[in-house]
Queue: 2 jobs
Job 1
Amino acid sequence: MRSKLTWMLTPLLVLCMSLSFGQEKTISGNITDQLGLPLPGVNVVVVGTTTGTQSDFDGNYMINASTGQVLRFSYLGQKTVDRTIGASSTIDVQMEEDAEALQEVVVQGYRTSTKEKSSIASVTVSAETIALRPNANFAQTLSGQVAGLNITTSSGQPGGNTQINLRGVGSVNGNTEPLFIIDGAPVDEDNFRSLNPNDIASISVLKDAGATAIYGNRGANGVVIIKTRGGTFNSATRINYLGQLSFTSLQDNDYDLMNAQEQLTLERDFGNGRGAGLTDAEIGASPNFDWSNFFFDTGLTQNHTLNITSGGENINSFTSLGYTNVEGILQASDLKRFNIRNNISGKSENDRFNYGSNFSINYSESNEPNSIGSGAINRNYILGAYQSLPYITPDDYTDGAALLSPLSFANTPLFLLDRLRTYTRKESEVKIIGTFNASYKITDDITAKIVMSGDYTDEHLTRAEGPTSFNALLFGGGANPTSGFQDQFVTRTFTYNQVLSLNYLKTFGKHTVDVGAYSEYFKAHYRRFGFRENGLNPKTFFPGDGDGFITDNGNNDFFVDAPAADILNAGLFSYFGQADYDYDTRYGITGTIRRDASSRFAGSNRWATFWSVAGRWNISNEAFMEGSIFDVLKLRGSYGTTGNQNIVDAVGQFAPFAAADLYLDLFATGAGYGGANSIVPSQLGNTILQWETIEQSNIGLDFELFDRRLRGSVDGYIKTTKDLFQDRPLSAVNAQTILRANIGSLENKGIDVTLNYDILRGGTDGVNMSVGFNGNYNKQENLEIPTEDGTVVGAGSLTGRQVGGPLNEYFVYRYAGVNPANGNLLFLTADGDVTESPNVDTDRVWLNKNIYPDYQGGITFDLDYKGFFVSTQFNYAVGVDRYDFDLSGFQNPNNIGQFRHSRDILDAWTVDNRETDIPSLTASNLALGGSSDRYLKEADYLRLRFAQVGYTFPQEYLKGTGFNVLRVFVNAENLITWTKWRGFDVESALSTGSRQYPTPRILSVGFELGF
Amino acid sequence: MKNIKKLVLLALIITAAACNDAIDIAQPGRLPADVAFQNVGDLQDGLIGLYALYDTTSEIQFNSVFADEISIGFDNGGQGLGNGEYGFVLNPNSAAPNSIWTRNYAAMNIATRIIEAASLVEVGDGEQAQLNDILGQAYGLRAFAQFQVQSYFTTDYANDGALGTIILNFIPTIDQSLPRNTNGEVYGQIESDLSTAAGLLTTQSSATFISQDFVTALRARMAAYRGQYSLADTYASQLLASYPLANRAQYEAMYLDADDTEVIFKLDRTQSDGYNGQGATGSGAAGGWAGANYAFVNSTLAGSPYFEMGRAVFNLLDPLDIRFDVNVDPSSIISPDYQNAVDYRNEDILVIQKYPGSEGVPLMNDLKVFRASEMLLIKAEALADAGSINGASNSTAALIKQLRDARFGTDQPLPTYTDAADAFGAILDERRIELVFEGHRWKDLKRLGSRANRGISRDPLDCAINGACSLEVSDFRFTMPIPIIELNPNNVIREQQNPGY
């Protein structure tokens, strides 16, 4: 705002002032970097005053000052330049990179360092690649941007959870997702629906033990550090608005599904369902309706973000307001979100005391259907969208009561249509994340610091099945015509984290020493309460309201309500130290050691020690490298350990509290036989439970060459998880068949590669073109399995683990096509002989396949020319195998008359069609196909994950408008996918799921306006 | 700025003091094992918890689906077909063996804990009798669980040298891999528990709790399974003296849980217990309402009966027999000429009504375990075994007539059997309709099939869908496989897997 006003008032001011002093004038100029490229955002201050401004997008600035005053130009990573104002009113500045440091700040956990002096493996993603993208959950945006970070989204629910794994999956049963820290506050890694991605300044992904050991107790799966945006001291007030409108739609499938006529003909030929006995004319006259267009439709999404930044001499602030309204592609799924953020930082005049606070208040409301993925024909909308018969239409629906008799599977879409109208499942959430940090330089070398943070989440769940709904009438039965229920649950969690540290930093000649001592305290509280009201009066029922509640009576127990309440607490305490030594920016070594205690192991092995050592050699800084093609060449190495105390991979608010005291032998009270009170054993304790430990070694090379045209890094790693949290199988005689224990070990080893190359460097008036590649190869291996034969296979499971094999490897007998003689399915025995009746136990073989990719990553391409910009990102994954149980349903003859089919089934074996891969519709061993690899399909893909075209209006066009930034752009997410996978969405973390909510294709337009 | 230093110091002190607050956390509401049972009242609550572990819905499901009690319903969504149970798929991964094995071993473990805790609790004045009765019930329940698991996993009931199941009369440690005991040892253990129970129980009869009569009934059934027919006869006769057969009205009321005339023992099912729900439908895991083993919603045509009564069973039922009324829902669509129906599946819909529901809750009914009619049929077996197959009194024929008289409410003809096999065949056929959907069929075929020349036999139209029409009783699948869930941790039992698996 200030800059705008200044700009408009300047002529007037100049005029007025000239009357009295005649000396103050407007200085303007252009600021460029070493290469002559414009440098936006440079702070320009009149020394000794509070007057200041920043250079604009094209490096131009304008400021009022008097002759003889000094202008100070400062920018992160550049040498500060002072210029005294002389006669000229134009001062152009070419800034120089600060050789000493700060080309790029590298987050090192609790401290920061420069890129040159960093010994760790980490990748930082800047705001530019996160903002402007229409994903409600920013983690989805990270997909394909960081080598080694595998992000899969199994649900298209707006703001839905993503599965995030860094460098493979490091735990069998424990949590496998990285620790997320926002502005110093550790937060729930499964819930980002309330956060505004446009507030993010940078995301740093810490990968090796050298980086993560300092987060010892929670760093085992890597650490993701998110910094939100802030203001700058001595800067003008700027207002920025970003608006975006998106259209989300269902991705395509290749199932080749039948229309009504084909479906009815199939039913007639098979002799089951509505088609049985119909004439050609009757079939031809049948309506034709695609239920996927009913349950899914194009969703509209709006995003608005307004930012205000400003900075004075000793304080600066960033304020952001955000509003998002996302309609899911699935009916009854949406997300509305409102955010306010205020980040303030300040300092004392002498720069010794620094403080800052980051607060965000977020409120979201979302409709999230449940039972997604289930086989409940009256509950899972996705099942209705995919599998409903096309000859049933919405016109067949009158109300829920009419569907009761005859009750027929074929009416699946009508049950679900009824549910859409009568069922509510809504979550509203208040999330407050606050951080306060303060540091004080006790001496020039010693700094004390405190960081306090809290993450408060208050979620209200309302779930109601209306009394006139089909489901309520169905299960209520004649005896209970006012069935229906309403759940209302409040879940509150508060986590508090505090880090105290004392840091010593000193340079003696070529030696720099940085030593820190830290303590960390973490405490988390979980409170949940609510009820299920049974019985709703249709006359006064409204979801979330209690007027329609029916009270218990003496005649029956239908209206007895079920209240629930939980209290759980968890905590961690640690103390640790880190020492870093640098010699002449050529050699460096960092050591970390920490002691951690967890409340989870209070009765067993509470304390554990984790440590790491990391070193580097900045080869390019050696004298002998003078004049080489390398601008940067750095060799890094690290080895260390980190711990995991999240014994079970719980999702959401409950996660820090799950499995709170597995070391205890427990009994529980509750309703027993005949509803009477009872005491039952509830838990067999494991008194030797301890931390799961990941040992990781890493060796890496960072390089920049050909005048920095080619930049990149290569890292190799070996990660070994020891004392894995696994379910030790127990004999049934123990009254429980598993015991969570520390057994076995698992290895992930692989390579991360990041490469960026500037093909064209045309500067502001020319063409700039760059390509980037990031990729990860990861190989898993079970090193040790706690059974005699080194394998574990779950009862009824299609996967297992064997020593030497990957995690969750498919372990099934093999499908070998159709027997031309009789149309039955053929399988292979373990020895490879063909059989129609495999032994489901002994003919299973390890397939060396699983859901996790061997290779995955992204390829980016960016181009800009005079304000036009094009940006694309391709994601790929290779070595992913998933069961396609949706396909299995579309090919299943048992479903004829009830559900929809693929045209594949027309090729089924008959005496006249013996050479086919589709078995006879009456094959006697059809059931055996389900637990073979018949539907195990390759799910490798290459996807145009993101594409963007936009235009930034040049400054000269904006003169006189009052704006200094105007940008318009068009985005697409998931535009094209190349894959053999036939389903709606190739990307999923579920190895055997079906009827899931696919992620959408998104097209959006947006604009950004700044003044 | 001095204050800052003080603040930092203060914060350090607070943190140091607070450290234990973060890591010494006792979660509320926990009941540690060592204080769980302190008095007789606690033990009674433990006993109620033990009863709650007993559930026969898996057995009911398995006997119906794997054997020949049901057919695929018109409203079937792959139940019985997807997992192959209806196609005779039975392997260590199947749900029913898993459920029957784990459920009964859990029960034996908890029963043992209660028995052991009994010696540690404080016994107040006048509480000894109550304590004895609790203990007696715990012994009775342990014997029952051991017998249930035995009856599915041993190869041959009558061979004391054959492999039986693991005897569990102690609290094992988690690293123990226990082998199977021989049948002789297992039966000995069961008899020992039953004798102890008989010495402690103070209740003579109770429909829903373990009583002296329960002990006698289990002894009768065990003796019959073992082929010890004179013992079986003795126990069965003892019970028949105090449990008359239900008349037609009582019989009908019994399946509405409104009459216990001939109920010796049943597992109570009510709205406020843990089994009030649908359970796993179409799976041997079952575990909810018994009726949900056959229909999703209720026991009528509109209740989505995914399994229907097998045509072969239906053909054995006379419409004048009360068992027709009890088992066949009136909303059924009965084809007058089912063999020539155009669309058999939709023109002949035989809806199972054995579990119509109670307390207003559809499909929820008490699980009948021992009834007088079973005792009568055990006695009939004993007589057939002894050669008394025909004659107006003290013969198999006389007892079958007695049962049919009660069920028809009219005098029925006295049957004559050509030989013992014929008599055993008649007993099996009578059991097939008298005990249908109560979890007996597969076991009955296993033990009597060869003597009666019977095997699994479905109507040809019922098995057209997958060709699984019949199975000889000599097939290995008349013994369940030790489930994978036990094979995984127990490497000793791996070597003792039943033949064929």
Note: The longest helix of chain B spans residues 128-153.
Job 2
Amino acid sequence: MTTPETPTDTANPAAAERRTERRLPVADIVISLGLAALFGNAFWIATEWSVRAGLFPRMVTGVGLALALLHVVILLLRARTPVPVVEERVDADDEAEGDVEYVFAHAGGRAWAGSLAWVAAFFVGLYVAGLFVVAPLFALTYLRFSVRRPWVFSVAYAAVILAVLYLAFEVALQLPVPPGLFL
Amino acid sequence: MGEALLDSLSQVLQLQTLGLMLLGVAIGFVVGILPGLGGPVTLALMLPFTFGMEPVEAFAFLLGMLVVTSTTGDITSVLFGIPGEATSAAATLDGYPLTRRGQGGRALGAVLFSSALGSVFGAFVLAAMVPVIRPVVLALSAPEFFMLTLVGLTFVVALSGKKVLKGLLMAALGLLVALIGIDSQEGIPRYTMDEIYLWDGIPLVPLVVGLFGGAEVLQLMLSRSSIAGGAGEMPKRITGIGEGIRDTLRHWPVVLRASAIGSTIGMIPGLGGSVAQFIAYGQARQSSKNPEQFGKGAIDGVIASGAVNNAKDGGSLVPTIAFGIPGGAATAVLLSAFLIAGLDPGPEMLTTELDVTYSMVWIVVLANIVAVAAAFAFLRPLTRLTFISGPLLVPFLLLLLGLGAYSSSNSFGDVLVMLVAAAIGVACIRWDWPRVPFLLAVVLGGIAERYLFVSYSLFGWDWLLRPTVIGLAVVLLLVFVVPALRRRQARSRNAPVAEEVRS
Amino acid sequence: MTHRPLTALRRTGGAVVLVAALAACGQDADATGDAAAAKFYEGENLDFVVPYDAGGGYDVYARAMAPYLGECLGAEVVVRNEPGAGSLLATNTTAKAGPDERRIQITNSVGTTSAQIAGADGVMFDMSEFSIIGRVATAPDTVAVATDGRLTSFQDMIDSEETVRFAATGPGSNEYIAASVLSAIYGFPIEVVTGFGGSGEARLAVIAGNADAHASTWDSVLGPVESGEVEAVVVASDEPVELLPDTPVVTDFVPESDEGKELLDDLVALETLGRGLVAPPGLPEDQLAELREGFECATSNEDLIQELDQQQRPIDVLTGDEYLELLESVLDTSPEFAAVLKDSF
């Protein structure tokens, strides 16, 4: 993992932490190996295709495989001989994501499990029960039980969502929305 | 030409025409804000109402609606990090970081004002192009399109920042994703995992919505702070809108260049806005004085993505008007409107029906000005949303994600694509991999392959010798060489400072 | 606009409601009659599926018909775009749908039937097993060349010693099929250049002189023909298209070989399939009858006919029984024709 060196980043405790102890970037290595496996598999599949259909896939997956392996090698070498990273180009989306990255890295396991469960509930509900059921229901339960807002507020929020959805999609535009399995 | 321009303006300024345009603008405004629900569907929905309208009235209604969807599509990109359209992805890159710093007003001011300027520019390009439309459009063919995609792909390096290798890897992954679908040469399903849904490839809108929006929503759920959480309490007054406008005026060369890129690429059937935004954005970064700010809240990045988005609309009308050949789904509906109104596209539009053509120019300009003015009225309440507690927005934002994805092809597969893209987006942020090269490669990969094969099929290897191709190759070199030279210059000048930072 | 039926008016109302922000939601009261129990579709929502994105020819027909069909059936007909796999995705979904699903679909019957005959990948339907409602319109493929191009007539093309280069999006598309079948019938050499992003792009390549010809449904050729950029040289049909009066039909050109003659008959039959309207397989008798009646009622409405004429998309109706018969005869095609089609996928 590269070290952010822009001055503002010193405020970021994660960055400071990382700078002092340089360890094996396990996540990056795992991701790169995963990508290598993906590219390798895709290359294997592409070998069955004719030249015209297979040319691009073979090029892309071949280059991808090589890059992924190269990345792993570089990461391993760098981990063995800690050299300060020379900053040549400046980063496109590092700092902006800095705080988001911080949130993702430091949210506890329970927060993750909870949030993912809510998201999963929403989309499974969307699939099973359809939009008009799940949207207000989710708003109600999420606001009441996760955000712990008062009942009145949660019900009002849910009602507004249902009304807006119904008017916009059913009455005005007559656009299809996820119908659920029972409709 | 001047007379025809004035003549057509007076036609547009009729009371009934203006009224219809305002109605169209209002509908387009709302639709543009809803992610995924794009211009073409709305146009198709509204087409039946143009029966019995005069041509200029019909275009005031439809075109007013269409051009506004690309303006307001940027609003959700900037405020919530959820792109309203596939063409608004670039606006999230810098607009959303600004919002998180509490400068949502400034970002929105800049993106909207540059949108307005861009659309005016695009409209005037359309007007000015009238005499030369034919030869210009015909001179551009598959080889040029291929070169343009290459120019776009080179920005992968610039947009991956200092994680060049990671950026290249993500780009390779993006190219692999772009390969999914039926191949256009032999009809072989590639990497489709026996799912017919994937035959047409990975749909772009769900991918963009998930890649950018998914991570932001999850972040709000985890952190439980407001979007502009880092900026402290909600200010009493939302300021910065004027600042955004001033920023735009100060960066007028960026507006000009992005608009030029937008209207040129808009003219090309098959490339369109999702390609144009990245070329303009990458170009803005290349020519910026402080490229290191890009992706962290560079105001010129916001301005470029706003301007390019709306300039393309003027350009996309060119092939429709001149040849009766629509460049995309939205202009296909407009072509139907031509027929309903009893107009034949083609040379007549540039001679006897010139006033109709020019009235379209005016409509594009006026509709955008109206929409932007209206948007400014909503800016304060909208920006306030970014200061309220994040979890309160979560049910609403999840809804936007779900609907935005689903309306792409009204299939639950779209929602699944969105969720997978969201997972990729979250992983990218968590482990510090760049997302933009991935998206860029997805957008450009399939097109690059198709045009390479078409170029070869049409021209053999001669396509390499076409003057426009050589010209674009020179541009390609400049894209690499000029920034490198500039950096070297800057480095030799600032050498001591650079040393200091490194130590 | 005053002659538009109720549903459309209600929809206008709806748009205004949305704009004026939640003003009058009570307007949407359903006009359900007392006989609702007897009819399967009355008072219900009916999905009208278009297997392509919004904006194309199939979409135009569906959106124009929907309010009239709704009026005739007493149902709320909602147009639904389900693009994917060049119309195969939606057609497969319709084939899998149960008879109790209120779903009808406009089909690219030329494309789907060819795919079925060729035994192409991804075909999970049998066209003759759908509950056939009728044919909406014919859409014979039409070959267009550049106005000032190398070839000026179809005869030129037939006589061409040089390879005629057709532009197309990809294998399996209607434009690809038409080009390769015509070449098989008349024995002229072709090359189909694929990879264009859409029909518009392909046609532009013809106008620019980079390719020789492009085949697509006649109504999509109309715009550029009227702009004077391309010329339509032949319609793959045995009767001329009204709006292209100067364009000869393919049966005017007699193929040299007997095999070619047979293939020509097969092609003409295939092309008459046009744009169909189908419901899921196995619909109960009375349900199908209800749909067919609604279809006939809608398509005989003068306002609809005029509306579509105005968009230069005329209707050309076949009843359900006639259409089913036609479909079955086309599906029962010669092995030679099937072999030619196979080469297009």
Note: Chain C touches chain B through 61 residues (CB under 8 Å).
